[in-house]
Hints:
The structure holds two protein chains of two kinds.
Chain A: H1 7-10, E1 13-15, H2 19-36, E2 42-49, H3 50-58, H4 60-68, H5 81-88, E3 91-97, E4 106-114, E5 117-127, E6 130-136, E7 139-143, E8 149-155, H6 160-170, E9 177-183, E10 188-194, H7 201-208, E11 213-219
Parallel strand pairs in A: 2-3
Antiparallel strand pairs in A: 2-4, 4-5, 5-6, 6-7, 8-10, 8-11, 9-10
Helix pairs in contact in A: 2-4, 4-5
Chain B: H1 5-14, H2 19-31, H3 35-56, H4 84-101, E1 105-107, H5 117-129, H6 133-153, H7 158-161, H8 167-181, H9 186-199, H10 216-235, H11 244-257, H12 274-284
Helix pairs in contact in B: 1-9, 2-3, 2-6, 3-4, 4-5, 4-10, 5-6, 5-8, 5-10, 6-8, 8-9, 8-10, 9-10, 9-11
Amino acid sequence: MKYDSIFDVVGRIMVGPSSSHTAGACRIAYLTYKIWGSLPKKADIYLHGSFAETYRGHKSDVAIIGGLLGWKSDNERIPFSFQAAHEKGLNFTFHTTDLGPNYHPNSIKIVLKEEIKVLTVIGSSIGGGNILITEIDGMQAGFDGDSPTLVEVHQDKPGVLAKIAAEIAQCGLNVNKMHLSRNIRKKIGLSWIEFPNHIPDDLKTVLEKIPEIQQVRIINV
Amino acid sequence: MFETIQKWITYCRSSINPLYESVIEEEMLTNEQTREWVLAEAQKSLDAMRNSLEKGNTLDIDLPIKEIVEQSQLMMTPPIFLSKDLKEAVYWAMSIMEYSNGMGVICAAPTAGSCGVFPAVLFKAQEMLKKSDEEILHAFLVGAMAGAIIGNNATLSGSEGGCQAEVGVASAMAAASIISLAGGTAMQIGHAIAICLKNVMGLVCDPVAGLVISPCIKRNAMGVMNAFLSAEMALSGVTSIIPVDEVITSMMHVGLALPVDLKETGKGGIAKSPTGKRIKKQIFGSD
């Protein structure tokens, strides 16, 4: 069954006009903002496929900037995001691009920069406002941001996941889904863990104390 | 979640409780939540719908296709053929769609491209039948359940099934909810859903320039009339010869049989007309 609950059908409150090209675009940018962890200063946004062709008509650009300012897809300020970005000091540039045939036809690449810090996120809008974050800094990902998600990057050594799992158990949390991707060349691993309920900040604090862990991000949607 | 409309109807007929109670019970089970949570979640969506209706008329909207700016306003003139109420309901559906095009916040029901139908019909029926906000919330639950069951047995996506899956389903949801509001039976809801979907069987999704404007705004207007018509027919005792679940399956088959050009790609139907192509070129600078 595609829809377990009536709220999968009538629970999606969002800015128009298009659930995939407006609300979905905003959600990809919002999750990118959450992964970055603060208000970005400089953003380059690359629009691929159908986004490249129709972004102006669907106001995908306005929605993306709203998301990068940390606004969810039902925020009434979204139509005024360009002005708010100007006031808050977010510089942004839109580019149309072709990411290649391996990417979903509705994909966006967002590159955030501040001094030496760089973050690259690729997300796809797969219909009805549903999205997938498919890549973070070149590492494969695959979460939809529908439930609270923990994303962490660690040195690719045996036993790291066990340490993470132990801390999650210590916090008394249940896990919905757990995934891992590895970059063998760079010797780093990325995992994303989806939870049924709110993730406490304490979990981030304890995970950051594990020596192999380089970065922890909590996305409480 | 009820597997089919018939199973839902059978359950409702075996129960002494009102129709909406079956929806509350199911949602409490599915979401592992309390009755209060279910009602509060539904109220959030209903509030967003009410908000989109109220703001739909007040916002200065900058639409990409200039020719259709605020065509909804024209529906505020005195009626010639329709009743005053029905004409106003059509106006509401169109203005919610225009509001959505101006990046207003709407509640997808079942999609953003069909977001005008359900609220316009539901809130107009509330006015006509002088019902309380609590009764509207209950009617909303009934319409939502109808939408979810149809979605599970067919599709709610224009790219999979064409406009019948969006505006068609929206009108079926609206018809289901106002029948429960008017005190109709579960059987009548089944017939109204069947009539609604049969009326638009095969309706294509052919958005000009791929935008959610033309023909989408006027299709929402049609959806309002389809909902009121089907509800009126079912409440008068008119029945569907083809059982509702068979209609839903047929709708899916028709949707699958539709060529891709007629399913939200903006490549067929009126999108492919000379004017449709000219408008696309004006907006995006390419065909």
